[in-house]
Specification:
The complex is a heterodimer of chains A (336) and B (130).
Chain A lengths: L5 E5 L4 H5 L5 H10 L4 E5 H4 L10 H13 L3 E6 L14 H18 L3 E4 L5 H14 L2 E6 L8 H13 L4 E5 L10 H9 L4 H12 L4 H10 L5 H11 L17 E6 L13 H10 L5 E6 L2 H4 L7 H16 L5 H4 L1
Parallel strand pairs in A: 1-2, 1-8, 2-3, 3-4, 4-5, 5-6, 7-8
Helix pairs in contact in A: 5-6, 8-11, 9-11, 10-11
Chain B lengths: L12 E5 L2 E9 L7 E2 L3 E8 L2 E2 L5 E5 L2 E4 H4 L6 E2 L5 E6 L7 E11 L9 E10 L2
Antiparallel strand pairs in B: 1-2, 2-9, 3-8, 4-5, 4-10, 6-7, 6-9, 10-11
Classes of the chains: A alpha/beta (336), B mainly beta (130).
């Protein structure tokens, strides 16, 4: 079965290489084009030096548009941060936060994206007040539903209710697939073992995660097994991660316009061992999703101490997996 | 993340002003997946050969601008960009002797969405050029 789901990449995925200057912006575009991933998502302030404290030169924006055109790409989303703790000792007021969002909407308009990502900690009232400006710019503000939050959490329900009450189509959701973590990621486990967690405790935590044991019980048990420091740190990851169900997205399909294809590792068989992509794509098809799934590789930080990171290969494998799950038609030249 | 990449192997040298060695400097990167506005850099801690450097003896520079760590707390128009090598200078008359020195660095940053204030550390021996 084919579908209208499209493939994209968040350039967050290549952070290990771009941080060190090993990949330029053009290298990123080229890598995505080679994988047939047409959508490009950015964290504005990662890709464009200066933003948001200082203005970004027109030349940089022109380069962006040149690359979009050259690689036949689509600018999908600008992820803004909104540092509401910018001023030491006080949180920004509602007015200051709204002004900051408007500034990022202006920047998003310069990039030509249809969506901006709001971090999950941003309050619904900020987004509701900013919505009319987003409507003017024909941009939607999507709050990122990210673990440990999920679609049944009261904080997200508050957002959903505020969005409906506002009557604005410019407000929506951007689910991060990391919230559907159905197994403890092997790269996390190995890193914790390298950090000093005894293997029998690591094995216990992994099994307890699969058995869906409440995080607080796991932490207590690890303490009673003699675990300290890194072992408790490993157990505490269960406070921030859980195997929520992909089908919970179905109630919100009318407001889901972009998706973060979070992953921690892709093995040689094109499988993400901890995030259930087969089920995820099945649910998205059932919900009639027509937007992008943008790869978001976050495995680098778990392996960089022990091995060379190859973000491009990891993303390529995920894109292959997505292509097959989405069921893109084979190009006719290859089909014969 | 990027822990080991916080310290750069190059650029570790004595700082000379008007013919006088006023201290030494090194190049450092922010261990974070984006940059950060300078007002949110809470602290940069340095230890040289096991001896902690006083906060007031540190200067932070990017692209030709320079601040004390206290001054940075109210800088709202500039940032430590993603992957950017900042020059961190320590005021110490006479600087350091050429050769190997153990350098430890710790950066504490105020990240709005995190329910804690993270500190990232790394340390290794760097070679100060003669």
């Amino acid at each position: 079965m084919t579908s209208d789901i499209k493939r994209g990449v968040s350039l967050y995925s290549f952070q290990h290489e771009t941080f060190q200057g090993k990949m330029t912006l053009e290298d990123c575009f080229k890598a995505c084009a080679d994988m047939g991933a047409s959508g490009i998502e950015v964290i504005g302030e990662q890709t464009f030096w200066g933003w948001p404290e200082a203005a970004v030169d027109d030349a940089k924006i022109e380069e962006w548009h040149h690359l979009i055109k050259t690689y036949n790409a689509t600018a999908v989303c600008h992820d803004f941060m909104l540092d509401y703790k910018r001023y030491k000792g006080r949180t920004m007021s509602l007015e200051e936060q709204v002004a900051s969002v408007r500034k990022d909407l202006d920047f998003a308009a310069r990039l030509g994206v249809k969506y901006v990502r709001a971090l999950v900690s941003i309050a619904p009232e900020v987004l509701v007040v900013a919505a009319p400006y987003a409507e003017e710019k024909d941009i939607k503000i999507l709050i990122e539903v990210h673990a440990p939050l999920h679609f049944d959490h009261p904080w997200i329900i508050r957002h959903a209710e505020a969005f409906e009450k506002s009557g604005s189509d410019a407000l929506g959701f951007l689910p991060d697939m990391g919230m559907f973590l159905f197994k403890f990621p092997p790269v996390w486990k190995e890193r914790f073992i390298r950090n000093g967690v005894p293997r029998h405790i690591a094995d216990y935590i992994e099994k307890a995660y699969e058995d869906r044991v409440l995080s607080e019980y796991v932490i207590l048990n690890v303490r009673e097994m003699g675990g300290e420091g890194p072992a408790l740190g490993m157990a505490e990851t269960l406070r921030h991660n859980a195997a929520f169900e992909p089908k919970r997205m179905l109630d919100y399909m009318h407001r889901i316009h972009n998706i973060h294809g979070k992953f921690y590792q892709m093995d040689e068989n094109l499988v993400e061992p901890s995030i259930p992509y087969e089920e995820i794509v099945r649910v998205l098809k059932q919900g009639g999703y027509k937007g992008y799934i943008c790869s978001e590789y976050e495995g680098n930080r778990w392996i960089e101490d022990a091995q060379e990171v190859d973000s491009v290969e990891q993303v390529r494998r995920q894109q292959e997996m997505l292509k097959s799950l989405i069921g893109e038609p084979t190009p006719t030249a290859l089909a014969t | 993340m990027f822990d080991k990449m916080m310290l750069c192997d190059e650029g570790f040298e004595n700082a000379v002003e008007n013919g006088e060695t006023i201290g030494f400097s090194l190049l450092a990167r922010l261990p974070y997946y984006r940059g950060l506005g300078l007002s949110m850099i809470e602290d940069i801690g340095l230890t040289i050969d096991g001896e902690p450097v006083k906060r007031e003896d540190i200067r932070f520079s990017v692209r030709g601008r320079s601040w004390t760590l206290d001054e940075m707390e109210t800088v709202y128009d500039d940032r430590w960009n993603f992957g950017e090598k900042a020059k961190v200078t320590v005021l110490r008359t006479g600087g350091l002797t050429p050769g190997a020195h153990k350098v430890d660095i710790a950066v504490r940053m105020r990240v709005s969405y995190l329910p804690f204030v993270p500190t990232t550390k790394t340390g290794r021996e760097l070679q100060l050029a003669a």
